[in-house]
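[recover] target loaded
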């Protein structure tokens, strides 16, 4: 066994080991505090790239789900307005049918015209108020233009007007049918996006998230290594002093 005073090789080795165990322990503490196995590219470069891609996919799917839900909300508002419009049109149709009778006087027809004018005014306000985030949803105002041409001045004009009302109601029903189909399609899209988002998040978690049980054991081991490193460094630093002390005794 050789002894050295100028070069403390054992101390250098012990210090290097202690520094490494300290760094490893610091990284383990960081993994605990963040809950992530990968906190920087040096931890796992390829794993970080994959997890970032999966995270982006999940966030993109989440935003598309929000967009689809907004579209569904818009469709629901539009459908609700068209449902109310249908009710108003049904009331108008009743008055038109009533005006198709030859038993009505000119005064009666005038009153029916006034009632229809009020219904048309309500219909216009309904279309104007159908909005989502400041965007008008029924700017085409289905049936409004044709219904404004209703004429109840005679039996013949009333019967002709009845066809216009029926056409307007048919147009509105067709629009509601299309909206329903769109809502169903959006619902299916949301289900598909949700499944994809969950799968992406699970995959990202399996790559990026730390295993708490495993990391607990790893941290305990690193703490023990650091303690052993401190002890080894103390012993290595004491070696030159011991050599000097031995030489002093030999000289005495």
């Amino acid at each position: 066994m050789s002894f050295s005073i100028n070069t403390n090789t054992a101390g250098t080795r012990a210090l290097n080991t202690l520094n490494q165990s300290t760094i490893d322990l610091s990284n383990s503490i960081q993994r605990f505090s963040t809950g992530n196995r990968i906190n920087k590219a040096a931890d796992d470069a390829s794993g970080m790239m994959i997890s970032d891609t999966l995270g982006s996919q999940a966030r993109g799917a989440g935003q598309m789900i929000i967009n689809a839900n907004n579209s569904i909300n818009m469709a629901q508002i539009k459908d609700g307005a068209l449902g109310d419009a249908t009710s108003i049109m049904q009331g108008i149709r009743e008055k038109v049918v009533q005006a198709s009778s030859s038993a009505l006087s000119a005064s009666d027809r005038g009153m029916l015209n006034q009632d229809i004018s009020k219904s048309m005014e309500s219909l216009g306000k309904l279309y104007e108020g159908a909005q989502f985030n400041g965007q008008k949803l029924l700017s085409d105002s289905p049936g409004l233009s044709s219904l404004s041409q209703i004429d109840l001045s005679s039996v013949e004009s009333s019967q002709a007007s009845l066809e216009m009302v029926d056409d307007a109601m048919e147009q509105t029903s067709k629009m509601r049918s299309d909206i329903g189909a769109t809502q169903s399609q959006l619902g299916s899209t949301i289900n598909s996006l949700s499944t994809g988002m969950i799968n992406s998040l699970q995959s990202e978690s399996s790559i990026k998230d730390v295993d708490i049980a495993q990391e607990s054991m790893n941290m305990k081991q690193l703490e023990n290594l650091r303690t052993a490193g401190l002890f080894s460094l103390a012993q290595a630093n004491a070696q030159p002093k011991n050599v000097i002390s031995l030489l002093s005794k030999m000289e005495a």
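[recover] notes: The CA atoms of residues 104 and 172 lie 30 Å apart.
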